[in-house]
Amino acid sequence: MAENNTNRIVMYLSIVVVVLLVAFVAVVIVVSGGTKTATVPTSTVAGAGTTATSTTQAGMSPSAAGFDPATATRVPSSSDPVKFVTTYYQSILDKKWEEAFKMQPAASQVGQTVAAFQQTQEQMYGMTSFKIFSNKVGATDATVVVQQELGTNGTWSATWTFVKDNGTWLVKARQVAMGAPTATK
């Protein structure tokens, strides 16, 4: 008889856990406004690949679409792609929201405010540290891959691409993916 009661209690607790997980996922989706995902092919990233999915959530949205050199975010002449990306993530850690916001690819800034960017960074991502995983800087293009530690949200990677236009580095895109970056063979 006691074994029957124990089995029944375990079954009820399992149902409660499932219901709570479904409710949690629903709340996360509603709060984030939904998430669009797409597989990131590992063969397109020079120097590193990912095996995760990318996200278009605010504050980390990919930006490959809509690149226009005339309106692109420019890397200051006193910097280079690696320093630029390092400064971007350090600005987030230092809570220099306006500086970090302006360093994003131009397409990622469209339709977003500094306040929304800050809220996303603080409440959804909570980056605790970052490191440059790899970089490849050529004469006319560059790729910088970053590994970010987001505390309870795990490890994420971001691949930044740059092009040189009339001697100035332009931020072309940033592709963000859940999971640590991996080296390509």
Protein model, in words:
With 185 residues, this protein is α+β, with helices and mostly antiparallel strands. The chain folds into two domains: 1-34; 37-178, Nuclear Transport Factor 2, Chain: A (Roll), CATH 3.10.450. It is built from five helices and seven strands, in the order H-E-E-E-H-H-H-H-E-E-E-E. It has helices at 2-32, 81-93, 97-103, 106-109, 114-125; strands spanning 37-39, 53-55, 73-74, 129-137, 141-149, 155-165, 168-178. The chain has a five-stranded antiparallel beta sheet with strand order 3-7-6-5-4, with helices on one face. Strands 1-2 form a two-stranded antiparallel ribbon. Strand 5 (141-149) and strand 6 form a beta hairpin. Helix 2 runs antiparallel to helix 3. The protein is elongated and about 80 Å long. The N and C termini lie far apart (60 Å). 30% of the residues are buried. Mean pLDDT is 79; it is low at 32-64.
Layout of helices and strands:
Elements: H1 2-32, E1 37-39, E2 53-55, E3 73-74, H2 81-93, H3 97-103, H4 106-109, H5 114-125, E4 129-137, E5 141-149, E6 155-165, E7 168-178
Antiparallel strand pairs: 1-2, 3-7, 4-5, 5-6, 6-7
Helix pairs in contact: 2-3
